[in-house]
């Protein structure tokens, strides 16, 4: 069962429970729950640290070769991929165009003109084809591209923001934190390659 279906199933079965899809683990009135297998180790270390102290928790972490402490509210880093194509040819052509020009600003009216539709028809058909508004799709695609650059290059946050189409580094950081509950720098620390490289051009898809 895919992640989204599992989340929907959980909410249907337990409507009175608030599901936090970002948290690694959560404690509420002495009830502690965790996410996947890796998060369960974080949860166990949290319990050890709470009752036996940091020194003992760190000792166990070294034995298990895992980070000694990750906050429960830290993002789970679950990737929600964007579909490479849709069932509508005109929208597919536009998506290819946007991916090749992701660093440029785009207006709804401009894109509607590209596909030869009225603004209203275009926004309706784009959302039906992709499941997202144009703005949501652009933000998600830009964040996906930014994750690749964070992981594979040594480009600065400012350079990455420019290359993926965010107007400012501040805007990039806000969108990234909202999506992943951590900063771009924290993402790079977790997933960055051991040897980062300078990229002369943006990564293309």
Automatic annotation (TrEMBL):
Residues of the HTH araC/xylS-type domain: 92-190
Record's keyword annotation contains DNA-binding: yes
Record's keyword annotation contains Transcription: yes
Sorted UniProt keywords: DNA-binding, Transcription, Transcription regulation
Gene3D superfamilies: 3.40.50.880, Homeodomain-like
InterPro entries for this protein: AraC_XylS_family_regulators (IPR050204), Class_I_gatase-like (IPR029062), Homeodomain-like_sf (IPR009057), HTH_AraC (IPR018060), HTH_AraC-typ_CS (IPR018062)
Pfam families, sorted: HTH_18
Protein name per UniProt: Helix-turn-helix domain-containing protein
Species name: Pseudoalteromonas prydzensis
